[in-house]
Amino acid sequence: MSSVDDVLAGLDPEQREVAEAVRGPVCVLAGAGTGKTRAITHRIAYAVRSGVVDASSVLAVTFTTRAAGELRQRLRALGAPGVQARTFHAAALRQLTYFWPRVIGGEAPSVIESKLPVLAEACRQLRRSSDRSELRDLAAEVEWAKVTQVGPEDYAAAAAKHNRTSPVPAEEVARLYEAYERIRRERHLVDFETILELTAAVMTEHREVAAQIRQQYRYFVVDEYQDVNPLQKLLLDTWLGGRDDVCVVGDPNQTIYSFTGATPRYLTGFAVEHPDARVIKLVRDYRSTPQVVDLANLVIAKGRSPHRLELVAQRPDGPRPVFHEYDDEPAEAAGVARAIRKLLDQQVPSREIAVLFRTNAQSEAYEEALSKAEIPYVLRGAERFFDRPEVRHAVVLLRGAARSAAGEPLASEVHHILAGIGLTPTPPGGGKAREKWESLKALADLAEDMAAEGADLPVFVTELERRAAEQHAPPVEGVTLASLHAAKGLEWDAVFLVGLTDGMIPIIFAETAEQIEEERRLLYVGITRARHHLALSWALSRAPGGRRSRRPSRFLDGLTGRVPAAARTVSASRERRQVAAPVSCRVCAKTLVMAAEQKLGRCATCPADYDEALLESLKAWRTATAKEAKIPPYVVFTDVTLQAIAERVPRSEQELLSIAGIGRVKVDRYGEAVLSLCRSAAP
Known about the structure:
Blueprint: H1 13-20, E1 26-30, H2 36-49, E2 58-62, H3 65-77, E3 84-87, H4 88-103, E4 110-111, H5 116-125, H6 132-147, H7 155-161, H8 170-186, E5 189-190, H9 192-205, H10 207-216, E6 219-222, H11 230-240, E7 246-250, H12 265-268, H13 270-273, E8 278-282, E9 284-285, H14 290-301, E10 312-313, E11 322-328, H15 329-345, E12 353-357, H16 363-372, E13 377-379, H17 389-403, H18 410-419, H19 431-452, H20 457-470, E14 479-483, H21 484-487, E15 492-497, H22 513-527, E16 530-541, H23 565-578, H24 595-600, H25 612-629, H26 633-636, H27 639-648, H28 653-657, H29 664-680
Parallel strand pairs: 1-7, 1-8, 2-3, 2-6, 4-5, 6-7, 9-10, 11-16, 12-14, 12-15, 13-14, 15-16
């Protein structure tokens, strides 16, 4: 790049305003597809090349290793190498490891990548059993507690205050949390949250450490600021040390991680915290067609957020988003597979197509439908590309071959090596064999691309190692299947948003107004992943022949031509009032006061008469249902509710609704399965 002003070339007026705002405090409110990464990299490059700041004094903080790698790559291209772009954890760990021998002494602690082994040991010590699914839920609770600065002794009260749905009783989570922390300290281990805590503590308690770090880093940029949690904010404030040369970038419309402790209030309140801050909005959407942008704006405008950004489309017109209603889930999956086949026939690459859903448990129907249609797919959010066994094996072989490379053409050499471990000229039919083949094919395609640029085998292996470190996987040929959360930050030519029913989005567990609004933003994120084609669909029942009782998401009210949810709510509330009458014991006729007794329909002391086999069947069904949805079993139905069902053996929806505490939402979601078990029970 010939001159400093060339850095500003090609930026739109708002992006240029960001780039020229070289001194903080600056807050960039950047909508989806508006080029925020372009704006902040040009801002850093312009500040460095114009002499405002030295490259080594800049710390750009991102949320993923891949995003950090992309920032560094772009900055090198803009003539600003040497800028430190790291995640919060990577930056903190580097500082903590450097200063540990000096201020604490001894060997620095080891970092644990996963809490599960330590939590499993905590469970063993407390003499309780937990499966892997429950351990993951417990790990999520411990992480939430730690990022919100809640200790074990305060967990139960904090969980109640924040409406947390813990996998086991809150008091038990607190005991496991305490045991986890004790074991971690005894074994000289740190998790990601402890790294941030200790770095902030070392800087606070040792002025010379704080002075050296603040002397090094004088200029801060923080991406995805709407996802910052209290612990990350604490560390950022400690790094700044009262200074305000900071630029934050985020989108209040894409706040979807509050369940992990993230909060948008630092972004939306930035101008209050820094009254002299410059606030710049990026709203020109370069990603999506006007039709997709219009739908995104309509969905978010119906919400209650005062901080939303209205996008302005910059691309030419495209097809209107389409809405599809299906009788059942298999029909929906088959319909989506047919639509994908049409796109493939129109030469849309499979890697440019995505099917997005609310929960990972929904993926199975689409995996089956795509397999039947012989359409390759990639399940995102499962095993990371460079962690796959076939990829690790391939990298080992390629690394060994690179040491004795004899000048063979890169592409042919790589193809020869990969052919020895399963890369064939044509792909296998499906399943695990197809997934393995797609991984190897992605490596071969990358080799061909780099061969065209003149790379040899050692250069190719070096590039693979860089990508592995940054988790920058090569594109794998196949339709992407992913949850809406896993899709954030990504984009495709064609997106299918599936399973859009009330109870799924918003999810049935979203009860407060804030939780409902976050579900709305999650749908907005899904919509804004699409560049050109967008399809939204839902199924009226779970299985073929089932009762068609589901309703499309309330977030689509007014957009699909159906009756709005508000009109349905009146009758639903009347229905709930009808089952709220006083309940009498069916054995002794005494009025029941306790909730558990009302649920059972009898006094706790009155004799119980129930089908034990039915109760066991109900419990087995509940366990399987909870596991599939990745939720605690009691969220499906409590033990008392299952006992009441087994005692009363309802044979119709009305009989099921007559059980205290079972409402229309539960019946719509689980009624068909429960009644089927009851009807098949012995009379």
